[in-house]
Structures are given as C-alpha cells and as structure tokens.
Design a protein that fits this description.
With 339 residues, this protein is mainly β. Helix content is 1%, strand content 46%.
Length: 339
C-alpha cells in the first residue's frame, strides 16, 4: 500500500563546476511499515540508509530468535530485513533475551545499548556493544550494570544521550526512570544515578528542541495482544536532569505526563509505544514505535506481534502532537527524504 512519487531537482552550478542532481522521495505510507514484528524500535541514520533495531523475537515458522533484528530503509516507509546485530548472545548473564536495543553513533562508532532479561527477572541488566557499521556485526563490550549494582529494580530499556561531551544512559521499567553519566568511552558508569520520572513508566527517550528537553515515556501494558494498553506520554524540562513537567505542570517524578499517543477503542491498533524519534530531510520529526494489529495480535510463539509504525509529529505551543492522539490507519504522505 506504499506508493512513491519521485521528484528530480536539478541545480546547475553557475560557476561551471558541475551539475548536481538531488532526488526527494515524496512517498505515501500506511501503517504498519514493517511486519511481522520490530518491537521496542530504535533508529539511526547511516550514510545510505535509515536503520531500525528491535527486541529479540522469533518470526514466522523460524524457531530461532533473531538476536536484535535490523531493518533498513531509504525513505522510512519501505523497509527490508538486513540481518542481526549479534552473531551470538552476550555471555555476561546466565540467561536472558536481548530487549529494547538503543543504537546511536558516538565517537565515530555505532554503540548498541541493550537489556538482558527474562520475564520476572530479579536482576536484569544493561550491556553495550559497538560496531563500525550500523549493520554490524556488533562486538559485545559486556555489562554496563545490573539492577543490584545500580540500585534500581528492573533495570531495562536503555537510552543513550550525549549532552555536549558528556554521555549518559537513561533507563527504567515501572520502578522509576533514571539516568547516570558514563565515562568518556561510554563503556562504564561515571556518576551517581538520578531519577527523572516515577514508577508508572518505562522506555525513556529524550530529544532537545529549542529551550527544552522532552522526555517521552511509555505506560500501560506492552504485551497483552489486542488487550494491550501501552501509550506514550511526555514531559519537558529546561535541564537534562529535570524536573520534567507535563502540560498541566505536574512532575513526571509524581507520575504526571501528557499522553500523546494511545490505542483507540474502535481503532485498528492497540498498545502503541516504546518510541524513538527521527527527523526527515525537511526537519519534520517522525515518531517511530510499535503497536499491535488487533486482528492479528500474536506470533506463533504466543508473544505479542508488534510491527513497526511511524507517524509525523506536529509541534503546538511547544508540545508534540501526533495525529488525533491515535496511530494513523489510512494511507497518507510520508517523510521527505533526499537521495
């Protein structure tokens, strides 16, 4: 259901140096943009493609899970499978699956922060891996910390943020959202943890826009198939460490938060959440997230089937707005991307 309309823009150099050709893919898209699943997506822009990464899952009839599946796209709407981030599972924890990868380019390399956990894990942890290319393979650098070491229960869902020359990781899942400064190589903890949001949330994601830092978090149940209640809320602060306030002035530390994306009772999708954000070539922000198709809610394994979704973010009075607050269902204009 995706259609591409290709525009060719030709610029002639007056000085006679040459002729430059630029193409902008003004495509149409309809959610979901990648199936069957890419849960807890992270996104990064490489030289030739956008790359998205997802939680370890088994697809189709394949009983082997994909160790952080990677998909790639030229235009953010047409995605193809590109492989797995890992050739083997990290060995620093006895058992666990690789959840919620967060990939970013830092100091010329691609860093992949990930959670290693099982359902009901008493001591999950967060690790880090690096690669020269966004398609990997990523070399595991080991454990960053586990829940007991850092003093935060259920330490999963990492998100990397660089403020000036200072790297941080933010994380948390229904036991508070925390951040901590990392060492310059981003492979170890440098500072003391600080809390930025309460225990109603998981999956933090932060962007800086104008004078504010915006903290996006997910709340509700991520993984109950068509009954999932996942949704995205946001707060903002003039300081990276907070306090983050919602539109009503309530602190996210007190479980405030302005809900900007949720499932519609009579809609096609349930449980939209665990987002990332990327800008297209015109500077338009797009939220990248997973949701569940109510008519096809589970994988053959019984796990919730969470395909990849995108939608544009509008900004109104300094706050993000996504459609009418629900995932888009109809075909509509896609991102503007130059090739």
């Amino acid at each position: 259901m995706k259609k591409g309309i290709l525009f060719l823009l030709v610029a002639v150099c007056v000085a006679g140096v040459g002729i430059y050709y630029f193409t902008a893919d003004q495509n149409q898209y309809q959610n979901p943009v990648f199936e069957p699943v890419l849960a807890d997506p992270s996104i990064v822009k490489g030289e030739d493609y956008f790359y998205a990464y997802g939680t370890e899952d088994a697809w189709g009839e394949d009983s082997d899970t994909k160790l952080v599946p990677i998909v790639r796209s030229k235009n953010l709407t047409d995605w193809e499978y590109a492989g797995e981030a890992f050739t083997k599972k990290p060995s620093w924890k006895g058992a666990g699956s690789i959840w919620a990868p967060d990939v970013t380019k830092y100091k010329g390399k691609y860093f992949l922060f990930y959670a290693l956990s099982i359902w009901g894990d008493s001591n999950p942890g967060i690790g880090v891996a690096t690669a020269e290319h966004p398609e990997g393979p990523f070399k595991d650098k080991g454990k960053l910390f586990d829940s007991e070491e850092i003093g935060v229960s259920n330490s999963i869902d990492p998100f990397f943020y660089q403020q000036d020359d200072h790297p941080y990781v933010f994380w948390g899942s229904f036991h508070g959202i925390y951040g901590v400064e990392l060492g310059e190589d981003a492979l170890g903890v440098k500072g003391e943890p600080f809390q930025v949001a309460g225990d109603a949330y998981e999956a933090p994601y932060i962007i800086k826009r104008n004078d504010y830092y915006y903290l996006f978090v997910s709340e509700g149940s991520c993984c109950e198939g068509a009954d999932s209640t996942y949704k995205v809320a946001v707060g903002r602060s003039k300081e990276l460490k907070g306090p983050y306030l919602d539109q009503n002035g309530k602190k996210l530390l007190d479980n405030g938060g302005t809900v900007i994306l949720e499932g519609k009772a009579e809609g096609k999708f349930a449980g939209p959440g665990h987002n990332a954000i990327v800008a297209d070539d015109k500077g338009q922000d797009w939220i990248v997230y997973h949701a569940i198709v109510k008519e096809d809610p589970v994988l053959w394994t019984g796990a919730s089937k969470r395909p990849l979704m995108i939608d544009p973010i509008a900004w109104s009075d300094g706050w993000p707005v996504i459609n009418d607050g629900y995932p888009s269902e109809q075909e509509q204009p896609g991102p503007s991307v130059k090739h």
